[in-house]
Amino acid sequence: MKQDRILVTGANGQIGTVLTQALQARYGVEQVVATDIVAKEAKQGIFETLDILDGNRFAEIVKEYQITQIYHLAAILSAKGEADPLLTWDINMKGLFNVLELCKEYQIKLFFPSSIAVFGEEFPKENTPQYAPLLPTTVYGISKSAGENWCAYYRDRYGLDIRSLRYPGIIGHQSEAGGGTTDYAVEIYHAALKDGQYTCFLSEHTVLPMIYMADAIRATIELMDAPQEKLKTINSYNLAGISFSPAQIAASIQTHIPSFQIAYEPDFRQKIADSWPQSVDDQAAQNDWGWQAQYDLKAMTAEMLKNLRERYSVLSK
After folding, report:
1. What are phi and psi of 34, to 5 degrees?
2. Is pLDDT at 123 greater than 80 in this prediction?
3. pLDDT mean over 200-214
4. What confidence score (pLDDT) does residue 313 get?
5. Residue 3: how many CB atoms within 10 A of its CB?
6. 295 catalytic, yes or no?
7. What does the alpha-carbon distance between residue 7 and residue 66 come to, in Å, rounded to a whole number?
8. Selected catalytic residue, list 140, 167, 212, 295
């Protein structure tokens, strides 16, 4: 049986960094090709510089390494996307089409990350259902909604194996935040340890769906491992972890750092957050492939502070 060769786009990013390491641990270091537009010396394994808009270069890498699976993480996120909507659309959609065409040509299995940004105003804010209307209010959300439909089209038209998750905000200690509206939930832990205070760009009671990085990576790999015949959802699976507000995460941090202070200065990202769910219903993921989150807010805060303390201790030496 042919051994899988994995390619990750956007491997330098917040999710890509951790997912690449998890895939290396699972498939073997030399079986995973990490790619990104910025050259980076890999800690271990293979790294190739790739602009996802360069279809010829993309095809060269796929052929050279005989890729059988692609995890397509390269994209411009919600907050950065609003600064340059046309560039965001160009990168998020043309990059996806390059991936889809390669998957069609070489029958490659694909993971496409969608987002809670696909939801718009016309849906229940709590326990947003799997098949709620997709009426996104940001160019990032529009690109992800369109991406879900294009993935479904290529799957149905060309028989491809394409799988997708609607990620909530992802919180991890391994790398810096990447330009999303939920990034405060990463930044706040760094600020608590470095400065003892944080000014949040969302209001204190803005509840959003989040997930700890370890759960997000596990969900991604579990979905890709699931038998294809069990996957009943047409486009992308809702994925739930934890829902909380800035005030709640600050209170969680204060159980470890009582002197920590938070202030609130909502900016343009508040409008984006207000258009998103407060929680999502991921019963379809639970039913189809046995998904279950493991981290709550208390456990996540303990893990984040522990790992960041160790990181800053090393950097200060």
Report:
1. -90, 135
2. no
3. 97
4. 77
5. 9
6. no
7. 10
8. 140
Q: How far apart are the C-alpha atoms of 93 and 133, rounded to whole Å?
A: 21
pLDDT over 60 at 219, yes or no: yes
Cα within 13 Å of Cα(29), Cβ side: 5
Mean pLDDT of 48-65: 97
Full-prediction pTM beyond 0.90? yes
Nearest in space to 260 (alpha carbons), one of 179, 177, 176, 197: 197
pLDDT digits (tens, 9 = 90+) for 88-117: 999 999 999 999 999 999 999 999 999 999
Rounded to the nearest 10 degrees, the angle between the axes of helix 55-65 and helix 95-106 is 40
Give the CA distances from residue 141 to residues 68, 77, 225, in Å, rounded to whole numbers and listed in that order.
28, 9, 27
